[in-house]
Amino acid sequence: MLSVNTNTGAMVALQYLNQTQGQLATTQSAINTGMKVASAKDDGATYAMAQNMRGDIAGYSAVTDSIDRGMSTIDVAMSAGQSISDLLIEMKTKALAAADTSLDTTSRQAMNQDFVALRDQITAIVKNAVFNGYNLVDGSTQQISALASSDGTRRITTAAENLSLSGSIVTVSTAASISTQAAASTMVVALQNSLTNVDSALAKLSAGSKKFSIQLGFTQKLSDSLTTGVGNLVDADMATESALLQSLQVKQQLGVQALSIANQAPQYMLSLFK
Question: What share of the chain is helix, strand, coil (3-state, %, to 5)?
Answer without folding.
Answer: 70, 5, 25
